[in-house]
Amino acid sequence: MNTKYLDLLAQKYDTEEKVVTEIINLKAILNLPKGTEHFVSDLHGEYQAFQHVLRNGSGRVKEKIRDIFSGSIYEKEIDELAALVYYPEDKLQVIKNDFNKEEALNEWYKKTIKRLIKLVSYSSSKYTRSKLRKALPSQFAYIIEELLYKTEENGNKEQYYSEIIEQVITLGQAEKLVIGLAYSTQQLVVDHLHVVGDIYDRGPEPDKIMEELINYHSVDVQWGNHDVLWIGAFAGSKVCLANILRICARYDNLDIIEDAYGINLRPLLNLAEKYYDDNPAFRPKTQADKHTSEHEIKQITKMHQAIAMIQFKLESPIIKRRPNFNMKERLLLEKIDYTSNKITLDGSTYNLKNTCFATVNPKQPDMMLEEEQQVIDKLLFSVQHSEKLARHMNFLMRKGSLYLRYNGNLLIHGCIPIDENGDMEKMEIEGKSYAGRELLDRFEKFLREAFAAPEKTDDLATDMVWYLWTGEYSSLFGKRAMTTFERYFIEDKAVHKEVKNHYYYLRENEDTCHKILTEFDLDPEHGHIINGHTPVKEIEGENPIKANGRIIVIDGGFSKAYQSTTGIAGYTLLYNSYGMQLVAHKHFNSKEEVLHDGTDVLSVKRLVDKELERKKVLETNVGEELCKEISILKDLMEYRYMK
Ligand SMILES: O=P(O)(O)OC[C@H]1O[C@](O)(COP(=O)(O)O)[C@@H](O)[C@@H]1O
Ligand SMILES: [Mn+2]
């Protein structure tokens, strides 16, 4: 190794003892059980349900509480303690209202702090002290450590410990300590979070999910098609931008754009008011708990049409300048007979209904009006200048990728495009043919290139982001074509169907999964593909664990819009040193319900895989990194201290 690096490293490890200590420390960590990985996907803006799953660690928190306290405290107390760990601030409010005497409240604090200390101690048993320290609230780290390392057998220090708790209460710090311990527990039960795509769209609060993820202790993201759409908009793709606005309008979520990200929609509204009217096909899907006035619904309906038409017009030049996208049949505006209001698709002619073609010039249907052009330009400017959106998109780029190989598994939102024989489908880009892993790597490179050059709006990289949203060989879309236009304007449901890639049928076979895992240089006998994107219809008996356990699909429908089809409210996956477990979540009503009734959204667990021997850090990605560090430290030892 270059001695320059070693000299630099020697500045940090400036004595022999420091190097030795670190080597011993890292070696010891390799023998600890692997940390718990938590997988979620398809959050679709459902912040409340997501944060509940995050806070309860898909049932892990309650499991730990039961392990320690079952049989020694009442079931109701178990529920209460769990609710306290999930929502400490809110639960404390409820508790404080229940006690009218300070003494009784202080007794409760004493009892509860002791229980929480036990819980933190138990939850951290497989970690080093240093890792535990990082999970503790910094202002109380010293105190908590004193309490944690007390040895029960030896009664000598009992008085000392009681005094610490007593003082914490007298000095008015009990509440803060309880809150800190609750968050430490949450952090300790899950070591690392994977978000297998689709944070954005359909639901109301994707921005809050992003904030939560930014503050999370350890996380990665595999981009979903909807996430890429938002990245594309920020990276300068006007057609991606039109799509995100259209989807927000469709789901009555324009406040995400206006209030959360501070983007002014006035120009769009003005255009919409001028050219559009009420239209049943464009009325937003209303949310039960949101009371949008009839007047607002009308405005949204108009904006929905205005932005949908801008989207359709913007698609056309991209399709024309990118023949390799193979999307000519999607030049729909040109297939319309504007006098008879009919369209001919694949040889069949259909009547168009609920049309809104006031801005279309039949002679040149994809031509944008000057006003439309200005609207989309202004919107793009605001989007690219939203500080909050910039922060969120930068985070997605930093922590995200198109796919991830992690601890022997392949994490991917959509699919690996394959043909009917299970062979990787090829796409031609700039005269070169790509398939499988190479194709995905090329896609990712384009996305990063587009993001790095937001001022370019119609280069290949930027167009490619839109292709990832809707192209036939996109690993995120996984369908032949997107029938948005048909669903708005044609009655016949047969043309609404989006034909899925063969992957979605062939992934049921173990052979296909073996082939894909091998393509990604993973062990086909032990690795798993972890997928999101397509809601598993549990209601119809579909099993999320497929191909003899080689693939697990965890889109169970966090998205409320999809819960009636799935029959549940989302799957999550846990992978700890004992193996992999799939958790099915029941519908999440509200945080208030958890706080007051103590009831949790019950999770049903299904075993995916059981390790024959407990898996250690040594066998993980992190372990691999640690081994490299050890080897470098050994080089340093030899170079510097063993001459
Ligand atoms: O449910 P909506 O809003 O009509 O959207 C349907 C569109 O969403 C998609 O299903 C993509 O979204 P998902 O990734 O959530 O499946 C498209 O295939 C389809 O055209
Ligand atoms: Mn998806």
From TrEMBL:
<comment type="pathway">
    <text>Carbohydrate biosynthesis; gluconeogenesis.</text>
</comment>
<dbReference type="GO" id="GO:0042132">
    <property type="term" value="F:fructose 1,6-bisphosphate 1-phosphatase activity"/>
</dbReference>
<dbReference type="InterPro" id="IPR029052">
    <property type="entry name" value="Metallo-depent_PP-like"/>
</dbReference>
<protein>
    <recommendedName>
        <fullName>Fructose-1,6-bisphosphatase class 3</fullName>
        <ecNumber>3.1.3.11</ecNumber>
    </recommendedName>
</protein>
<dbReference type="InterPro" id="IPR009164">
    <property type="entry name" value="FBPtase_class3"/>
</dbReference>
<keyword id="KW-0119">Carbohydrate metabolism</keyword>
<dbReference type="Pfam" id="PF06874">
    <property type="entry name" value="FBPase_2"/>
</dbReference>
<keyword id="KW-0464">Manganese</keyword>
<keyword id="KW-0378">Hydrolase</keyword>
<comment type="similarity">
    <text>Belongs to the FBPase class 3 family.</text>
</comment>
<dbReference type="GO" id="GO:0006094">
    <property type="term" value="P:gluconeogenesis"/>
</dbReference>
